Amino acid sequence: MKFLDIKSILPLLMSILFFSCTGNSGEEGDGGDVSGDLVLQVSKSIIVADGEDAAVFTVMKGETDVTDKAKIYLGDDVFEGTTFSTSTVGEYKFFANYDGEVTEKQTVKAIESGAIPVPDDSKPEEFSNFKHRTLFIQSTGTWCPNCPYVTAAVHKYQENNNDGNAVFAAAHNGDGMANEYSAKVISWLGVNSYPSLTTNLNGATELYNTIDTDALVSSMSSTVESNLGVECYTNIASSVSYSQDKKYINVLANVKVAKAGKYRVLAWVLEDGVYEEQLMGSAIPGDFDHHNNVLRYSSSSSATGEALGNATESAAGTIEQFACSFEIDKLGVEDLGKCRVVIVTLNGFSGKFIADNVVECAIGGTAPYEYK
Fold first, then answer.
1. Residue 229: phi, psi to the nearest 5?
2. Cα(362)–Cα(325) distance, rounded to whole angstroms?
3. CA-CA distances (angstroms) from residue 13 to 6, 19, 28?
4. Fewer C-beta neighbours within 10 Å, C or N terminus of the chain?
5. Strand 274-275 vs strand 318-327: parallel, antiparallel, or unpaired?
6. Segment 22-33, tens digit of pLDDT
7. Is 123 domain-assigned?
8. DSSP state, 51?
9. Are residues 113 and 249 in contact, defined by beta-carbon separation less than 8 angstroms?
10. DSSP H or E segment with residue 9
């Protein structure tokens, strides 16, 4: 029998050792029999920039964990390890590479802890000419075969308009995204058939009357344009931040009041990208199984919120304050990094409270007063 001497087998041993030392700081692993989509999973998309709060990464190939054989990148550089923390506020983009395949990028946002101040007012003496946004409420459900027509119109409107003049919220009924808050909103609007698209928490303004997506987009655009020219009586500046203990989202808002009267206020937590299979009545191009603008939680058990400033009536030329907190563990969201907070003011001048103005604010961000 012929044996290999040590000089002959040394290169082979070195080759084996080299290719077995895989993982995030090593070479990409070979795919083997692993199949399925390659996904970089992040334990949370928002962390506090205190050097301790951390996001943990997992790389999945289908149902198989390939983290120890993959490379994770921060920007264009290899990221050593699978846990990320930082003391610097900012957005950090990660992706993974495994067996020559690259994942989609995932963003981790590092934010300050503690209260973030509400932005200063650029026109402190002005109590008129407030920018007037439109609030659209989509009443919907995954069991509703015609609801994707409205969703398609919302998508198309948002693709064509990034001016922030419209804010969208989806109140779900009869599916996994439905909750007590969406039920209150749907009841307040008097919705009894689906789909439904209304404006400014006013059930009398239903827009949906066609499965023509382009016609619905046109109707939405006309409504927003018209609403910009209609006077509103409140202007909202806000901030949304983590609490020091990282258990709560804290919302602060200052509300300028231009006209004496009865006002109410509320805050909603909305989430994007929530997965649930959607029943389709006919083939409409697009992804309708991932749902955006989902109403997850409200600061109030009432669809119309609480009295602004805890006052029966607010005086003209005053600034009322609003604050609320959301306990993160009770929000029922899938990804806090895909959430934002919407703050709505309502007036009762018509005899029924309807939305006066609305603003949306990122978690860890601020929204200033805006004027025409």
1. -90, -5
2. 15
3. 10, 10, 19
4. N
5. unpaired
6. 345 444 444 456
7. no
8. S
9. no
10. helix 6-20
Its pTM stands at 0.79
Cα(9)–Cα(3) distance, integer angstroms = 10
CA 205/CA 67 separation, integer angstroms: 51
CA distances from 25 to 17, 21, 30, 79, 134 (A): 15, 9, 15, 8, 49
Q: Identify whether 184 is part of a domain.
A: yes
How many helices (H) does the chain have, and how many strands (E)? 4, 24
Q: Which two tokens stand for residue 370?
A: 């805006």
Write the CATH number for 66. 2.60.40.10
Task: Name the packing angle between helices 213-228 and 147-160 (round to 10°).
Answer: 50
SS3 103: coil
Cβ 333 vs Cβ 341: under 8 Å? no
Beta-bridged to residue 42, according to DSSP, are: 57
- What does 134-176 look like in DSSP terms, one character per residue? EEEEEEE-TT-TTHHHHHHHHHHHHHH--SS-EEEEEEE-SST
- Contacts of 347 by beta carbon, 8 Å cutoff, 6+ apart: 233, 234, 261, 262, 263, 353, 354, 356
Q: Read off the pLDDT of residues 59-104 as tens digits, 9 standing for 90 and up.
A: 999 999 999 999 999 999 999 999 999 999 898 999 999 999 999 9
At 353, list the tokens.
């409270």
- Domain span at residue 76 reads 22-111
Q: What is the DSSP string of 170-216?
A: EEE-SSTT--HHHHHHHHHHT--SSSEEEETTBGGG-----S-HHHH
